[in-house]
Amino acid sequence: MATKMSKYTGGNGRKQLPSPYVAHVDYVEIVEHVFTEALASADILELFYLPPDCRITDISVVTAGTSTATMDMGLMTGTVASDDPARTLGTLLFDDVTPTTQQNATVAALAAIAKSAEARSIGVKFSANIAASGSTKLTAIVRYAST
After folding, report:
1. Please, which pLDDT band fits residue 13 given cuts at 50, 70 and 90?
2. β-strands 54-64, 137-146: how paired?
3. Which residue range forms the structural domain that includes residue 38?
4. What is the C-alpha separation between 7 and 69, in angstroms, rounded?
5. pLDDT digits 0-9 by tens, 76-101
6. Cβ atoms of 46 and 121 closer than 8 Å
7. 56 and 144 in contact (C-beta within 8 Å)?
């Protein structure tokens, strides 16, 4: 198993998510990942991170080119952008969903993600291998707020 990085979590030029300055005001980020690198079914894609002291208030996901592969998405163990192979998915926002049509997180899944003083990674794991292709992508619309 390997941890793969997205443009939000990998490298020095990674895209930064805005940190809210006003409590309880939603920020919206459209997170898009194009699969330019293959992803094995045992791999976890570190898709984005949740800024410190924030909670996700809503999240929707959809994929293109992933066929019938199901997906889990949730908090990752370890430090943001760490390539430690022992990292896993923990508290799930999505469990075994087929994201070829838009999927929305349940209120119960959102409530299970408590705020933390540290930034936390949100990762994705698919049930099947995902081939590298410029037309294969995952899009998430994330709403989050400081609390």
Report:
1. low
2. antiparallel
3. 3-11+25-146
4. 22
5. 999 999 988 899 999 999 999 999 99
6. yes
7. yes
Looking at the domain assignment, is residue 59 inside a domain? yes
Structure tokens at 132: 């590298």
Report the 10 Å Cβ neighbour count for 144.
Answer: 24
Among 73, 104, 107, CA closest to 90: 73
Would residue 85 count as lying in a domain? yes
What would the mean pLDDT of 62-80 be, rounded to a whole number?
96
Q: Is the dihedral of CA 20, 33, 83, 74 positive or negative?
A: positive
Q: Assign residue 132 the CATH number of its domain.
A: 2.60.120
Tokens of 47: 């898709």
Neighbours of 77 (CB within 10 A): 15
E-only strand ranges, the chain: 3-5, 27-34, 44-50, 54-64, 71-76, 89-97, 103-104, 120-126, 137-146
- The H or E element spanning position 110 is helix 107-111
Sheet with 103-104: strands ordered across? 27-34, 137-146, 54-64, 103-104
The single residue listed with the structure tokens 């390539």 is 83
Specify whether the CB–CB gap between 49 and 8 falls below 8 A: yes
CB 77, CB 39: distance < 8 Å: no
